[in-house]
Amino acid sequence: MVTVSMTVNGKQVSKEVEGRTLLVQFLRDQLGLTGTHVGCDTSQCGACVVHIDGTSVKSCTVLAAQADGAEVMTIEGLAQTGQLHPMQEAFREHHGLQCGFCTPGMVMSAVDLLKENPDPSDREIREWLQGNICRCTGYHNIVKAIQAAAQSMRG
Amino acid sequence: MYDFTYHRPSSIEEAAKLLAGAEDGKLLAGGHTLLPTLKQRLAQPSDVVDLAGIAELKGISEAGGALLVGAMTTHGEVHRSELVRAKIPALAHMASDIGDSQVRHRGTLGGSIANADPAADYPAAVVGLCATVRTDRREIAGQDFFTGLFETALDEQELVVSVSFPVPEKAGYAKFANPASRYPIVGVMVARTGEGVRVAVTGAGPSVYRWSEAEQALTANWSAEALKDLTASPEGLNSDIHASAEYRAHLVAVMAKRALASAG
Amino acid sequence: MADTAVGSRLERREDRRFLTGKGRYTDDINRHGQAHAYFLRSPVAHARIGALDTAEAERAPGVIAVFTGKDMEADGVGSLPCGWVVTDRHGAPHKAPPHFPLARDRVRYVGDHVAVVIAETLGQAKDAADLIRVDYEELPAVIDLLSAASGELLHEAAPGNLCYDWELGDKAATEAGFAKAAHVTKLDLVNNRLIPNAMEPRAAIGEWDSGTEEYTLYSTSQNPHLLRLILCAFVLNLPESKVRVIAPDVGGGFGSKIFAYAEETVCTWASKKIDGRPVKWTADRGEAFLSDAHGRDHVTHCELALDADGHFLGLKVDTTANMGAYLSSFSTSVPTYLYATLLAGQYQTPAIYANVKAVFTNTAPVDAYRGAGRPEATYVIERLVEIAARETGRDPAELRRLNFIRPDQFPYQTPVALQYDIGDYEPSLDKALEMIDYQGFGARKAASEAKGKLRGIGLSAYIEACGIAPSAVVGSLGAGVGLWESATVRFNATGTVSVMTGAHSHGQGHETTFAQVVAEKLGIPYDNVEIVHGDTGRISMGMGTYGSRSLAVGGSAIVKACDKIIAKGRKIAAHLMEASEGDVEFKDGKFTVAGTDKSKAMAEIAFTAYVPHNYPEGVEPGLDETAFYDPLNFTYPAGVHIAEVEIDPDTGITTIADWVAVDDFGNIINPMIVEGQVHGGIAQGVGQALLEHTVYDRESGQLLTGSYMDYAMPRADNFPAFRVETTVSACTHNPLGVKGCGEAGAIAAPAALMNAITDALGVEIDMPATPEKVWRAAQARLRVAAE
């Protein structure tokens, strides 16, 4: 067992876990943050994307122990005081989600994209999303939503 | 995943000691190969030694006409590095297209080359750019580093510290990605280096290799004309549900041309 | 305030929870005291089970129980049924071999269920599964469906591995049509096997309450009532009144979550065996690949006869369809009644004959996947028509137009059983041609060729039968269930409305669309309407969501229940306003005495119904009405999709340059949601045509495409932006005039894309058009051109 301490969505947490505990298991099973999903076993679908120290990562391919001391943000931490993040707003306005299962990872990935590239082209958005699989939307409205969020965040 | 004991040392020496003391220890770099392997219960290490806490394994610097890239430098850091973009744009370009954005945030140069996946990108850079791999005990010429399918010249508990990439005169990288995994089915690094012309091919065979006919042709004449009618042999190349050896051989020639075009 | 009216692009009310991580999917639920199940699956495709020793596993740390097929047999557990009896050419029912939740003496595909380990943690269950000793006495695997007849027998009940040999249509009339033909186009094609890959893997929690002797099953189901019916009536022999199935938020299904599977059956049964501890199972993606019902998998020879003017004279189709190792819940109906009945397409083909043989192989069961039979039918017709146009030197668009059923011919009786109520095909064709600038294609092709690229354009004029389905019709064809839908509309005393529907959203946005319908129908605020679904404990009955039926059938049931509410409300209003019921009109949420300014709002009537102090004699208190709606016919959405592609002949990479879709879905409640459905459907159709391919090793029967490393899922960078428009011919036989939109894209897209690719290549290839296949074809073409 190993003790891991980290900040999750602004709150300090500390738990004893097995070495093999994945960050996504830690979030879902120990902290009850079930917004982060698991959709594959091969680090490809991106349903589990969260931010570690402000950068998007696949929480199914990070040990909880590796995130010791880090600041982790999950989809539950994105909306501030009940106010949706512009990316969440844009996904809703442009119907960027259907079943909602890939959505948390998709949104967290998209938020990180705009940190790296505040004014992406459609092609750049589509390439960035290589690691996020959606089976419902055909990606059309996801791209539209990210463009809209980029515009609103640029002001 | 089977359980193991997790360690996060803060120095190379400490890491080496932990590894030596473990019954079956494994080094954890970015984890993007090791953790999926463990999840599938394909390995059962007693101890996992995380290298993330070792500062000297990180970072990119320039020295003596070469770029020194720490083993724990992520693909994203290589891709975004102004230094790499200025000195070896082909390397930055390669790093920008490994895996996906999240994989690039975690996956590392050292982890990639130590694993020696035949379908990884970096081996083409290590061989094609005449790099030198520095370990905790010696230097290994890039040319000699990859010895086979998932096999390297590293000893059992040897640890990659950094890779030194001499700045080439020209270099370009082109890849044809597997539509499913997005790993290269064929990736080709074409470079004009201080040691001569190099054409390094990854993905096509069981391990990275140099396409000597193309190297000779380009040595004689560094131009598209030299590669125009050159064909690669399918002999010994991989063949699977995604691409036959014949198709891979064809792609080697096409990607070499495209890499050359991007090298200028 | 947002416009919530029918027809407005209202944002979805379910999105806030999905976007903030508050969706509640089955795996998000943890029950007190739950144990974890892990299934030991067959590593081989075909074997007799020799010795099976679980003793060591039972002693492993944390293990609560290990069960095998023998344990279920001893408990009288039955076989998972196939709910649709197909009668073969000779009048005999299809061969229905048993499909036990845990194998009893033989395993028949890689991933088949051998045993279940139930332990305190999933890790312990997996560890223990390693300790189960199984002797697999291997048998030859039957993988190739064309040679299945001569392969090792899978089931004693099915000689020659044949499930049925079935036919539809007038063979003699079709032969007569061919005898008159000026031209016959022939095609051999493969409709490739697909794995649905809803992003949420299947999951189940079974729970038995020893106090009430009731079972609760949490499941990732598209149709919880149907699942309950199957479990109770056929497999576990339980009273339906003692079983509650809850399907919370469901993360996509595309058909794969319609069926009753082994895992949820075992979890439900096993909970009682371990004294009521809840038993939880969640598939990992590898298990999903192995054990979710797959889709498609046909091999077909087809021929189209044309006269000298290009009119179609007849269509012959000979298909072999793969059922997999066992019959999944509705598998038999897919390559028959959902396939051959659609072979008329949008055309006046006077005679059609189809012969379908369904075979067993040592592969995962195959069943309905988005479109289910209709994509396969469209692919046959639309590939044939396109090739016929090429062969006879006609413009593919004009050959279609020439043969379209004309608007004045509706209702139109096809030669393959269906009667289309309405349609108008030319406006969709014209609009699509205009949108893609069909006339300008030549110039675009020349521009591509100047860059060393190939360019192609391809059409697909599809039709589908949706709104499944009139119960009497499907009953006469062998369905074991009625395909009506139910709805309860319940006014609460304070004016809010709860709508209980048997349809169940797994991404379609029912909570929004249905509320739009109810708000408009009853003239009450949208925000006052709550949609309840996915729980047999809260909804009286239901048949679920599939076959693009939710709005056409479920929505119609809701409208009928609203009508009952209004009828009762009118009685109460007439009493309150001292008017005769016949003089009371209902409009915009108000009951008004005709010709006066006397009126009562719906909310006031609802309050009166629950506080009936001043109330009409003989009328029951309360305002809570249930309706069942059984459709009069299928609905027939139709449209035209056009794809344009550019191919790099050096690599074989196909880039989709443009995509236009013009669909006629009848009336539309929420265009934003409809467009989203079309986009997603197109993406799955493109996936089939370009990327997705299920490969079993022909010798060993191992699934070679068992993860996202090898099964190419469509990603964002595989697509352009789609351009989607609609035309409207309202359905004539349901109260909303709607037809359904969920499957259209997946039905239309494969043919459009393959027509475009083969147009560019000038050579026929099968799906998926992988880079290597395209490269080989392009090289062959370039060689021919050079000679």
What does this structure look like?
The complex is a heterotrimer of chains A (155), B (264) and C (787). Chain A contains five helices and five strands; from the N terminus they run ββαβββαααα. Chain A has 155 residues and is α+β, with helices and mostly antiparallel strands. Chain A is globular. Chain B folds into three domains: 5-50, Uridine Diphospho-n-acetylenolpyruvylglucosamine Reductase, domain 2 (2-Layer Sandwich), CATH 3.30.43; 55-166, Uridine Diphospho-n-acetylenolpyruvylglucosamine Reductase, domain 3, CATH 3.30.465; 170-263, Enolase-like, domain 1, CATH 3.30.390. In chain B, the strands form four sheets. Chain B has a five-stranded antiparallel sheet with strand order 4-5-10-6-7. Chain B has a four-stranded antiparallel sheet with strand order 11-12-13-14, with helices on both faces. The A-B interface holds A 2, 18-20, 22, 41-44, 46, 49, 55-58, 61-63, 65-66, 68, 109, 112-113, 128, 130-132 and B 1-6, 8, 28, 31-32, 35-36, 38-40, 48, 50, 52, 76, 99-103, 105-106, 181-182.
Looking at this protein, list some descriptive labels.
heterotrimer, A: 155 residues, alpha+beta, B: 264 residues, Uridine Diphospho-n-acetylenolpyruvylglucosamine Reductase, domain 2, Uridine Diphospho-n-acetylenolpyruvylglucosamine Reductase, domain 3, Enolase-like, domain 1, 3 domains, four-stranded antiparallel beta sheet, 12 helices, globular
Helix content of chain B: 25-40%
CATH class of the largest domain in chain B: Alpha Beta
Alpha carbon gyration radius of chain A: 15 Å
- Total E-strand runs of chain A: 5
Biggest chain pair contact, residues each?
Answer: A-C, 53 and 56 residues
Low-confidence stretches of chain B: none
Biggest sheet character of chain B? 5 strands, antiparallel
User: SS-based structural class of chain B?
Assistant: alpha+beta
Task: Report the radius of gyration of chain B as a whole number of Å.
Answer: 18 Å
What is the CATH architecture annotation of the largest domain in chain B? 2-Layer Sandwich
List the helices and strands and how they pair.
The complex is a heterotrimer of chains A (155), B (264) and C (787).
Chain A: E1 2-8, E2 11-17, H1 23-30, E3 49-52, E4 55-58, E5 71-73, H2 86-93, H3 103-116, H4 122-128, H5 140-154
Parallel strand pairs in A: 1-5
Antiparallel strand pairs in A: 1-2, 3-4, 3-5
Helix pairs in contact in A: 2-5
Chain B: E1 5-7, H1 12-21, E2 25-28, H2 34-39, E3 47-50, E4 60-63, E5 66-70, H3 75-80, H4 82-87, H5 89-96, H6 101-106, H7 109-115, H8 122-128, E6 132-135, E7 139-141, H9 142-145, E8 146-148, E9 151-152, E10 160-166, E11 170-177, E12 184-193, E13 196-202, E14 209-210, H10 212-220, H11 224-227, H12 245-263
Parallel strand pairs in B: 1-3, 2-3
Antiparallel strand pairs in B: 4-5, 5-10, 6-7, 6-10, 8-9, 11-12, 12-13, 13-14
Chain C: H1 15-19, E1 35-41, E2 47-53, H2 55-58, E3 63-68, H3 69-74, E4 106-107, E5 113-119, H4 122-129, E6 133-138, E7 162-169, H5 171-179, E8 183-191, E9 203-209, E10 214-219, H6 224-235, E11 243-246, H7 262-273, E12 279-282, H8 285-291, E13 298-306, E14 312-324, E15 352-360, H9 374-392, H10 396-403, E16 412-413, E17 419-420, H11 425-436, H12 441-450, E18 454-463, H13 471-476, E19 485-491, E20 497-501, H14 510-522, E21 529-532, H15 550-576, E22 584-587, E23 590-593, E24 599-601, H16 602-610, E25 624-629, E26 638-648, E27 653-664, H17 671-691, E28 723-727, H18 744-761, H19 771-786
Parallel strand pairs in C: 1-12, 10-11, 14-15, 20-21, 27-28
Antiparallel strand pairs in C: 1-5, 2-4, 2-6, 3-5, 7-15, 8-13, 9-10, 9-12, 13-14, 16-17, 18-26, 19-20, 19-25, 22-23, 23-24, 26-27
Helix pairs in contact in C: 9-18, 14-15, 17-18
